[in-house]
Amino acid sequence: MAQQDAQNGGSKNAAAAATVSFVAVKPQLLVEAPKANVAILFFKVVFGTEEVGRTLNPKRKAKHELPLILSA
């Protein structure tokens, strides 16, 4: 019943009870295939990122890069 009230906003303390916190963020970057290499090189030079993975989907002809960005 309390979960239903929290979902429907029926309880006055629902906002306090339904606090959500995040401990990590997984950013995703979409870049057109011809520009992917240039974009990754830019992120390596400017932000000091490290490439942790690369995916090529031949059907869609899109490259997906996974740069490692350290947060402060």
Automatic annotation (TrEMBL):
Annotated ranges, domain Glyoxalase At5g48480-like N-terminal: 28-72
InterPro entries: At5g48480-like_N, Glyas_Bleomycin-R_OHBP_Dase
Gene3D superfamilies in the record: 2,3-Dihydroxybiphenyl 1,2-Dioxygenase, domain 1
Protein name: Glyoxalase At5g48480-like N-terminal domain-containing protein
Protein species of origin: Glycine max (Soybean)
